[in-house]
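Field log, afternoon session.

UNIT: design team B
ACTIVITY: writing a sequence onto a fixed backbone
BACKBONE:
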């Protein structure tokens, strides 16, 4: 894996008064997650349209869980859980993983490439007993984990 970090981005981080070393650590946490992450990319698999958003959400889940929240990250409960990547699905996954311990670990296993099965959000129901839409609705109604308040997200 090759990780390239924009010096313009790092200059911006520094210019905003943030710690460059912390940002580099966060970027590496996110990118190193992709090294160990299943992605369902075997031939005939990986057909779920929003799978890239889910994959990026899992990587940010790991980054945030490690205590290195991306700069500018906020909770967004609008739309669907996977209509964006990175923070939006990450915060949902953090919340869901608290409700169902090891949910994200098991989701990752369900994305194994070469298993002959295309990944779908049905994996949530297999793991938790609830559809992803039911989980998303419960998350949207949760009073915690909203805006910049991330209590009970993790």
């Amino acid at each position: 894996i090759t990780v390239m970090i924009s010096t313009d981005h790092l200059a911006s981080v520094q210019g905003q008064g943030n710690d460059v070393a912390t940002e580099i650590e966060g970027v590496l946490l996110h990118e190193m997650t992709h090294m160990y992450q299943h992605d369902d990319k075997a031939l005939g698999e990986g057909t779920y349209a929003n799978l890239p958003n889910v994959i990026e959400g899992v990587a940010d889940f790991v980054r945030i869980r490690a205590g290195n929240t991306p700069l500018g990250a906020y909770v967004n409960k609008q739309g669907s859980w996977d209509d964006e990547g990175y923070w939006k699905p990450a915060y949902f996954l953090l919340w869901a993983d608290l409700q169902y311990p090891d949910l994200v670990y098991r989701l990752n296993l369900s994305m194994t490439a070469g298993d002959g099965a295309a990944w779908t959000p049905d994996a949530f129901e297999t793991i938790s007993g609830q559809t992803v839409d039911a989980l998303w609705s419960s998350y949207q109604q949760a009073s915690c984990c909203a805006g910049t308040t991330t209590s009970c997200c993790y």
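LOG NOTE: DSSP finds seven helices and no strands in the chain.
NEXT ACTIVITY: expression trials, pending approval
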